[in-house]
Every structure is written in structure tokens, then in C-alpha cells.
Amino acid sequence: MNSIVKNISKKVNELDSLNFLSPAVIEIINIIDKPETKLEDLIPLISLDRILYTRIFKYLSSAAFGMRRPPEDLREAINYLGLQGLKDLIFLIASHTFFKEHDELYHNIFTAFCAKSLAESLGYQPKETSQIYMAALICDLGVLLLKKKHKQEYSEIDANETLHGKVDLENEKFGTNRIAMSYELLVNYGMPETVLRIVKNQENEWTSANYHTENQLIDTAYELSYLDCADELDLEYILNSPRSIEYKLNRIALTPKIIKTMHKQVSELARF
Fold it and tell me: CA-CA distance, 57 to 146, in Å (whole number)?
């Protein structure tokens, strides 16, 4: 078995060197998910992290959020975003610390935003869409360690534009894959159990009993992230695949214009 799989503590140490999530970010994310959390509970926590505080305002001032004017203070910012929106933005900000290459960052942000949008179209509630968003953003995280160990062997894997295609090749070459690595790493960082469950199930085939609609949403969003200039035929091919039909994604009204707008928004967010 691959040495990376055998030594979890080594994984965590290597992940630390990649500057993953700070304890403050994890604490804020977990507090937001508690039903009794109020806005007043979050303001002092965020205010203590000056980098996070500054970046929240920087993002909200960008064209991607479309605000008529930047928020005057943190209270106004949180009221605009909502608690789940705040959590998503904090996680987006954190993603810049571990996805160093622009292409990796871009594809993961697009996958997260697209999966969230697809989930909303299917009627998922804000807390559920946020969980899908977070899982989509980080289920690919383990590739950073695999690439660090096997950089020269990744050209064939990167050429595959489906998440499961890459996972199959990694299993064949390394005896493990990016999703399995992501899950084990995230467990050690105290991520919410609901997010961990989605990440863990992402490794399964779509016919598995442990593969659910949220996993198909992420797989579909991952494929769409490679379509810079999607046309109707591209979307029809993806949304009318057997697995998309099985999980009712073929009912989603997705157009090339929507994909183009999403790419424009993600381009703005990925440049910070």
C-alpha cells in the first residue's frame, strides 16, 4: 500500500506545509452551523482575524457580488450575505491559501459555485446548498499532496476532464486517490460531519447506494467547469447522461448564457 495511505500524521504535517485552514476559520464555520448562533456571536470572532476581516470587504467590493456600494461595517456585510453566505465566502477566501495554481483554484471555485447553483435549482435549502458548496470546493484537495509526491506522473491524469476519471487513474497508479486523501485530511481539521459525508461519498460510483444527488451535482459541476464556451449540445450531453437523468438533473434549466455568466463571476473571484 502507498506510504501516503499508511501514515495519516504525515499527511497532516504535509498539509500544514500547504497552509490549509486556520483554527479560527474552522471555529467560525462550526459556530455558524449551530442553530442558536446569532450575528453578534460572529462579529468579535471575525474582527480578531484582521486578514479575514479585510478580505471579506475586499470580496464584497468586487463586481462578482454586484453590490451597489460596499458595506459600511461587518454587521451590514453579514446581513447582506446571511449566515450561510458568510460561511461560503469565508471558505472561498480560505481556498486561496491552498490552491496556489490559478487553474486549480479556478476549477474548484467554479465547481463549488456551479454545484451550489444546481442544488438551488433542485430546491435545496441554504444550509444544504452551503454544505454541497463546501464539499465541492475541497473534495479535490488531496490532489495537492498526490501531485507533490508524483508530479511527473500527472499529465495523463490532468488530461481527464471528469472527477471520477481522475480518481480511477489515481487508484490505478498510486493505490489511493484525491478524494480519499481529502477526506482523511479534513477529518483531522474538524470539518462539519455533513460536509465530510458528502466528500467521502464522492469517491463512490454513481450506481452505489452511498452515492447521492449532492455527489452527482458535484460531478456535473466539475464537468461543466471545463466548458469555457458551452453550447446547447454540450449541456444536453451532460444533463441528459444516464446518471443525470437518474438524479433528476435533466430537469434543471441550464443555458450557455448561465454558464458564461458563472465563468465571468468566478474569473473575478479567482483573481484575488
Answer: 34
**Own/partner pairs for 34-39, CB < 8 Å, 24+ apart?**
37/83, 39/75, 39/78, 39/79, 39/83
Which amino acid, 207? Answer: T
- Where the chain has pLDDT below 70, the residues are 1-21
Distance, CA of 186 to CA of 226 (rounded, Å): 26
What's the pTM value of the predicted model, to 2 decimals?
0.86
**Calpha distance 49→22 (Å, rounded):** 10
Domain CATH number, residue 120: 1.10.3210.10
Number of domains within the chain = 1
Q: Are 24 and 49 in contact (CB under 8 A)?
A: yes
By residue range, what is the domain housing residue 186? Answer: 3-270
Q: Which residues contact 128 (CB under 8 A, 6 or more apart)?
A: 119, 214
Please report, as a single letter, which amino acid is at residue 7. Answer: N
CA angle 55–81–107, rounded 5-degree value: 60
